[in-house]
Structure formats: C-alpha cells, structure tokens
C-alpha cells in the first residue's frame, strides 16, 4: 500500500496552480496604460478593415454617432423623443432660469445653456439616458469667482464677458480631458469625498435661496453657513 505522505503529496500536486509566466515590465506597463486610458478600446472597429474610405466612415461615426443611427430613425422614435423632449423642457426651462440667477446672469443665458448642450450631445453623444446641461454647483462657482473681480450690478457687460470667457476655457479643459482619456482621475476620489461635496453643494444652494425667499436686499456674497445666517438674522427687521 502507498505511504500516506506520498498520497497527500500527489493530491496537492494535482490541485496545485501553475505559476504564470513572467511578464516583462514594459509589456505590463503597456497593458496597464491601455486598460486605464482606453478601457472601451475605441480602435477595435478599425481592425481588419480594408480601404481608407471605410475607415474614414467608421471614424466619422465614432465621433458623430448620429451618422450611424439617424438613417434608421423612424416616426415611432420621433414620437417618443417628442414626448420626452416636452417633458424634459418643462423642467429644464425653470431650472435653467434659476441656475442663471445663481450665477448672477440674465435668465436668457440659462435658457441657452439648457437648449444648446442637449442639441450638441444629440449629434456627438452615444447615451440615450444622459442629461446634459448646467448644474447648480457650476453656477455658484461662477458667481463666487467673478464677483471677486467685478460687480455684476455696476458693470453687467464686463461680468457677462468674463462669464463667457470662464465657461469657454472650462469647455476647452473638459474637451482636453476627453481627448486624452483622463476620466480615470475621478477614480482617485473617494466615495466619502464625492458624497461630502454633493451634500455641501446642496446646502450652499439652499442657503443662497434665502435671499429671494425672505426678500432680503443687502445679502452676503459669502457662501459659508455662518456668513449667510449672520446676514439673515441681522436683517430681521425686513
């Protein structure tokens, strides 16, 4: 009869996992960068494609997805999009006006910011369930940044020009992040940081609405809780 130790050793050898072959550092680094910067592998559709014309068409469809789905777009899809568009417009119109007021901009600017981004995304976007437009935090940041430079009541034209300049460079910066596939940077932000930022932004937005709700004239330009509450309680006579 075989020895007990030999039987156990044979069983462990059968269950053992082979050590993977060593991978060169350069290859490991290249694969890691590829998984990080190009997780969706945007060049897969160009493989095994003969002809420059075919690759050019695929490239245009990748940048402008509307060229791919619009030829098969029918009346049924248009009817559904019309109903959903009217529904979203009922929310986007007052939301755009309120966000413009948060940034101390004319209400018409808020309407443009609610209409133009979805129009551009319909041509260049790929998601059917994504909302595109301004957000309250961006409006508050714009107002807090520009009011340190110019007073929107004293020089509204200069304030408007600076707002356009700030949003232009913000768009250039975001486009560069998309071109260079730097969205993975968000992965380094912890969940607690994101939740705290969202909760803080909601608190700031609520506090800024006290000016309109209470009808205060001389309201603080600061966004912290202490300054806002001090401004409110110092004007109780109003």
TrEMBL record:
It is a multi-pass membrane protein. Residues 78-238 form the SLC26A/SulP transporter domain. The chain crosses the membrane at residues 105-124, 130-146, 158-182, 188-207. It comes from the Eukaryota. The keyword Membrane applies. It is found in: Membrane. GO terms for molecular function: secondary active sulfate transmembrane transporter activity. InterPro entries: S04_transporter_CS, SLC26A/SulP_dom, SLC26A/SulP_fam. Pfam families: Sulfate_transp. Coiled coil: none annotated. PANTHER family: SULFATE TRANSPORTER. This is SLC26A/SulP transporter domain-containing protein. It comes from Genlisea aurea.
């Amino acid at each position: 009869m075989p020895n007990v130790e030999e039987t156990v050793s044979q069983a462990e050898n059968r269950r053992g996992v082979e050590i993977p072959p060593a991978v060169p550092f350069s290859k490991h680094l290249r694969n890691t960068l590829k998984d990080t910067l190009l997780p969706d592998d945007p060049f897969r559709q160009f493989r095994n494609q003969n002809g420059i014309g075919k690759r050019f068409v695929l490239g245009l469809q990748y940048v402008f997805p509307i060229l791919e789905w619009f030829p098969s777009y029918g009346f049924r899809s248009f009817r559904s999009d019309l109903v959903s568009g009217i529904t979203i417009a009922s929310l986007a119109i007052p939301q755009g006006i309120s966000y413009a007021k948060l940034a101390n901009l004319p209400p018409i600017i808020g309407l443009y910011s609610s209409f133009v981004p979805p129009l551009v995304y319909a041509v260049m976007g790929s998601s059917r369930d994504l909302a595109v437009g301004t957000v309250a935090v961006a409006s508050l940041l714009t107002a807090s940044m520009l009011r340190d430079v110019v007073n929107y009541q004293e020089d509204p034209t200069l304030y408007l020009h600076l707002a356009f300049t700030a949003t232009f460079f913000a768009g250039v910066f975001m486009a560069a992040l998309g071109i260079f596939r730097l969205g993975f940077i968000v992965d380094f932000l912890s969940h607690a940081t994101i939740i705290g930022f969202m909760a803080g932004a909601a608190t700031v937005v609520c506090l800024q609405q006290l000016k309109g709700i209470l009808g205060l004239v001389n309201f603080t330009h600061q966004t912290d809780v202490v300054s806002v509450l001090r401004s409110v309680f110092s004007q109780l006579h109003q």
